[in-house]
Design a protein that fits this description.
about 260 residues, alpha/beta, Rossmann fold, 7 strands, globular
């Protein structure tokens, strides 16, 4: 029996098969879960093609987490695929955006508020939005898991996305506080740098990438999303019933090292 046998999971924010969201969907299916994935806009057609590469082709939802109409209709959209009385056992937030031309790659001091606001809404506030949109259909003991990149320090090139991730990490803690009494767990996984489409959009990403394998005691493969996906699925499972508000590092141990 798989770790997620019989569970229904929504993975929000799957684009390419190199994305962490895709890896999560794959591992979740391998562990017995029924999976829905989502994207929106021009990327939606790409996601529908990529979905065919999963072990079982999942339904693909049109979901823009900044669109209130999409959020209001999300519960009904899930039930269209899983049944009128269906519930979700897990939600994965694999969503982030910061304009690389104005917010990343050393542009911190010049980043305009309009772009910063968008980055915070898409990358952090949307965790709350997604949690509230799915809350009416979350099963008892359900888990919500988001993805972060360690926001406790200032990284080269990451700039305003680092601020957005700090907001995400704080949002995680407050959601854990307010949803915990209803039995809903909320956690984050902090992965090391992975060569995803999102990472490639960061000017100067190679500065982060280069230092990781040297300082990680377990080493680090920046092309392997599976360790991160396994951690997400573990947090969605019944093996962490009393864990919430946590950030689990999957970074080869880099975060715990000094020089």
């Amino acid at each position: 029996m798989g770790l997620l046998e019989g569970k229904r999971i929504l993975v929000a924010g799957v684009t390419m098969d190199s994305s962490i969201g895709f890896a999560v969907a794959k591992v979740a299916q391998e562990q017995g879960a029924e999976v829905l994935i989502s994207n929106f806009g021009r990327a939606l057609s790409i996601t529908k093609r990529i979905a065919k590469r999963l072990p079982v082709e999942p339904p693909v939802l049109d979901l823009d987490v900044t669109n209130q109409e999409h959020l209001d209709g999300l519960a009904d959209a899930v039930r269209e695929h899983f049944g009128a009385d269906a519930t979700l056992d897990g939600v994965v937030h694999s969503i982030a955006f910061g304009n690389p031309e104005t917010l990343l790659g050393g542009k911190f001091l010049d980043g305009p508020w309009e772009d910063v606001a968008q980055a915070v809404q898409v990358s952090a506030y949307s965790l709350k939005s997604l949690a509230m949109a799915t809350k009416p259909i979350l099963a008892p003991g359900a888990g919500i898991v988001g993805l972060t990149f360690d926001a406790t320090v200032a990284w080269p090139a990451y700039d305003w996305m680092g601020v957005a991730k700090a907001a995400l990490e704080s949002t995680n803690r407050y959601l854990a506080r307010y949803l915990g009494p209803e039995g809903i767990r909320v956690n984050l996984v902090s992965a090391g740098p992975l060569r995803t489409i999102a990472a490639k959009a960061i000017p100067g990403f190679e500065q982060l990438d280069a230092m990781w394998s040297d300082r990680s005691p377990l080493g680090w493969d920046n092309t392997d999303q599976e360790p991160t996906a396994k951690a997400v699925c573990a947090l969605l499972s019944d093996f962490f019933p009393a864990t919430t508000g946590e950030i689990v590092h999957v970074d080869g141990g880099y975060h715990a090292m000094g020089a």
